[in-house]
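Structure first, sequence second, as always.
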């Protein structure tokens, strides 16, 4: 018995359809009757659709693709009638369309495009209080982003300067107010600071309570 290895077989044109489809294409090309070739070709296209059913997203577009694949497998040498224009051999040399990317350059990459979009939207606000609240929120976000990528701290003046620049001077806030109330620091830092101050008062109160209790004992003795 003679064994046939894949290395000895004809190279597959479109591997996703397998060797059996390629052999059927070769068989159809050898049929003398054009009427039979047309009928066999239509049946083979239906078979090729069943082989890759997950690709059947758009019926019209997918049907044409399978017919094109049939002619590709035949090396564009199959005399059958197709419901679609027969593709030319140059289709194999066609390169995929280049993906389109946003041409907008990000001025500050460590902040990202999202911060720029937030600043653009905040610049359109009309209420002064809403604008100031937006500046505080954006400032906190920018400071967090900066500290994520850099070990050094960034000054509040620098953050505000960047906000002014990106907003074309549409967004601003009193820098002294920012520093006094730590407006560009995270809320977590503010809450922990308040808790520390509150804890100190409780500690002093407990000490005072102990001294008063001791004094009472001395007076009673």
């Amino acid at each position: 018995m003679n064994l046939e290895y894949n290395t000895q077989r004809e190279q597959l044109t479109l591997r996703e359809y397998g060797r059996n489809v390629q052999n059927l294409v070769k068989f159809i090309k050898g049929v003398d009757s054009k009427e039979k070739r047309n009928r066999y070709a239509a049946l083979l296209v239906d078979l090729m659709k069943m082989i890759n059913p997950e690709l059947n997203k758009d019926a019209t577009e997918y049907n044409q693709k399978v017919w094109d694949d049939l002619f590709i497998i035949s090396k564009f040498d199959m005399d059958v009638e197709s419901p679609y224009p027969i593709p030319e051999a140059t289709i194999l040399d066609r390169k995929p369309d280049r993906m389109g990317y946003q041409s907008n350059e990000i001025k500050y990459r460590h902040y990202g495009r999202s911060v720029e979009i937030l600043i653009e939207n905040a610049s359109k606000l009309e209420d002064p209080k809403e604008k100031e609240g937006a500046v505080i929120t954006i400032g906190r976000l920018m400071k967090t982003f900066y500290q994520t990528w850099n070990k050094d701290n960034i000054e509040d003046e620098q953050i505000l300067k960047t906000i002014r620049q990106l907003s074309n001077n549409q967004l601003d806030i009193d820098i002294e107010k920012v520093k006094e109330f730590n407006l560009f620091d995270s809320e977590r830092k503010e809450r922990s600071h308040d808790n520390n101050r509150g804890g100190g008062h409780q500690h002093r109160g407990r000490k005072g309570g102990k001294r008063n209790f001791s004094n009472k004992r001395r007076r009673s003795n």
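Margin note: Residues 187-220 form the longest helix (34 residues).
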